[in-house]
TrEMBL record:
Ppx/GppA phosphatase N-terminal domain ranges (all copies): 66-354
Record protein name field: Ppx/GppA family phosphatase
InterPro entries referenced in this protein's UniProt entry, alphabetically: ATPase_NBD (IPR043129), GppA/Ppx_hydrolase (IPR050273), Ppx_GppA_N (IPR003695)
SUPFAM superfamilies: Actin-like ATPase domain
GO molecular function: pyrophosphatase activity
Family matches, as PANTHER family: EXOPOLYPHOSPHATASE, RETROGRADE REGULATION PROTEIN 2
Domain of life: Bacteria
C-alpha cells in the first residue's frame, strides 16, 4: 500500500491522507494490479465519494471501464451563508466533517489504496478555507486538495465526455454546482471517433446555493425566476463572446452534469424515486427540457419537497439551477441535451487508472 503519515492517520488512513491522495501527476506508473481506487468530490453543496476498480471487459464507453465498488453522497451545504459571511460556518464544518468521517470509514472498509480527494468552490472562496482543510486533516486523517477551476473543468470533461455524440463537431458541457458553474467546449479530435479536445472553458462564480441565497429559493415567482435568469445571462456574457467563432454543426448539443439536470430528467420521466440507470445518458429535446422546467416552476415549495426526485434538501435550490440552465439554453441554443449522472469523480478515477496504466488495451 502506498502510504505516508499525516495528522493522526494510520494504516489505511495513512494511505488516504498522503501517498494515495496525490495528484495523477504523482501517480505510480506500475500496472496498478490489485489497487482499489477512490475519488471524493467535496463541493459547495454535496460531499460525494466513488470507490471503483478497473473494469477489464471491453465496454461501449470509456466511463464504463469503472467497476463501482461503493459510493456515498450527502448534501452538506458547506457553502451555506458563504456569500454573505465570506467564511465557512461552524455548523457547515461539523456537518461536512461528519460526512467525511463516513467516507474515510468506507475507504478503509473497501481497502482503498489509490485516491484523490478534492474540494472546490467553497474552499477556494472562503477566508477560512485553509483552516477548514486543516481541521479535516486533524479530525479524519484525510488530506483534501483544493483544486483550481481549470482542473475542475478538466475532470468534469474527462468524466462525462464519452456521452457526447461522436458525430458532433462540438459539444458544450456544463456543470451547475453549488457555488460555481463550469462550461467546457469539447471539439472532436482529428481522426478519433470518440476522443474530445477541451477547446475552451470557463468557471463562473455562480451556483445553485449562491443564487438561491441571493434571490430566495423557497418561494420563486415569475419575477424572481426572471431575475435569477438575468443574473446568469450576465455572468455568461464574456464566454459567449469568447466562443462565438466555434463551429456548431447540425448535431451540436448540450451535455449537462449536475443535480439540476438529473433532477429535471427524473421529473421529465415521471419517476416516483430517482433512478440513475434511467437518467444517465438520457437525451432530452429542447421542448422536453422546457416542459420539465415549467412543471417544476408550477410546484410550490411543499410539492417540491414531496417529489421523490427532489426532496427537502434540494427543494429550495432546484429552481435556481433551472434558471442557470435556462440561461445556458438561451445563450447556446441546441435541439437536445444529454444528461450525465457522472462527472468529477469519474474523471478523477479514470485519470488515476490511466496514470497507473491499468486502462490500456481495455
Amino acid at each position: 500500500m502506498e502510504a505516508a503519515t499525516a495528522g493522526r492517520a494510520g494504516g489505511a488512513q495513512a494511505a488516504l491522507a498522503a501517498g494515495a491522495t496525490g495528484s495523477a501527476g504523482h501517480a505510480s506508473h506500475g500496472n496498478g494490479n490489485g489497487h482499489t481506487y477512490a475519488a471524493l468530490d467535496l463541493g459547495t453543496n454535496n460531499c460525494r465519494l466513488l470507490i471503483a476498480r478497473p473494469e477489464r471487459r471491453a465496454r461501449r464507453r470509456n466511463s464504463d471501464l469503472l467497476r463501482v465498488v461503493d459510493a456515498f453522497s450527502r448534501i452538506v451545504r458547506l457553502g451555506e451563508g458563504l456569500g454573505r459571511a465570506g467564511r465557512i460556518s461552524e455548523a457547515a464544518i461539523e456537518r461536512t466533517i461528519t460526512a467525511l468521517e463516513i467516507c474515510r470509514d468506507k475507504m478503509e472498509a473497501r481497502g482503498v489504496t489509490r485516491a484523490r480527494l478534492v474540494a472546490t468552490q467553497a474552499c477556494r472562496g472562503a477566508a477560512n478555507g485553509e483552516e477548514f482543510v486543516g481541521r479535516v486533516r486533524e479530525r479524519t486523517g484525510l488530506e483534501l486538495e483544493v483544486i483550481d477551476r481549470e482542473t475542475e473543468a478538466r475532470f468534469a470533461a474527462r468524466g462525462c465526455g464519452s456521452l457526447a455524440d461522436p458525430q458532433a463537431a462540438s459539444v458544450l458541457l456544463f456543470d451547475i454546482g453549488g457555488g460555481s458553474t463550469e462550461l467546457v467546449w469539447l471539439t472532436r479530435a482529428p481522426a478519433a471517433e470518440e476522443a474530445r479536445d477541451l477547446h475552451s472553458w470557463t468557471s463562473l462564480e455562480l451556483g445553485v446555493v449562491t443564487l438561491a441565497e441571493h434571490f430566495g429559493g423557497r418561494i420563486v415567482d415569475a419575477k424572481t425566476f426572471a431575475a435569477m435568469k438575468r443574473h446568469a445571462l450576465d455572468a455568461l456574457e464574456s464566454f459567449v463572446k469568447e466562443t462565438a467563432e466555434i463551429r456548431r454543426c447540425s448535431r451540436f448539443h448540450l451535455l449537462g452534469t449536475s443535480g439540476t439536470v438529473t433532477t429535471l430528467a427524473g421529473v421529465h420521466l415521471g419517476l416516483e424515486r430517482y433512478d440513475r440507470w434511467r437518467v444517465d445518458g438520457l437525451w432530452m429535446s429542447d421542448a422536453e427540457a422546457t416542459k420539465a422546467i415549467q412543471r417544476l416552476r408550477g410546484m410550490d415549495f411543499e410539492a417540491r419537497v414531496a417529489n421523490g426526485c427532489i426532496g427537502p434538501q434540494r427543494a429550495d435550490l432546484v429552481l435556481a439551477g433551472c434558471a442557470i440552465f435556462e440561461a445556458i439554453r438561451e445563450t447556446f441554443p441546441a435541439a437536445r441535451t444529454r444528461i450525465a449522472d457522472r462527472g468529477l469523480r469519474e474523471g478523477m478515477l479514470l485519470e488515476l487508472m490511466e496514470a497507473d496504466g491499468v486502462l490500456n488495451g481495455a
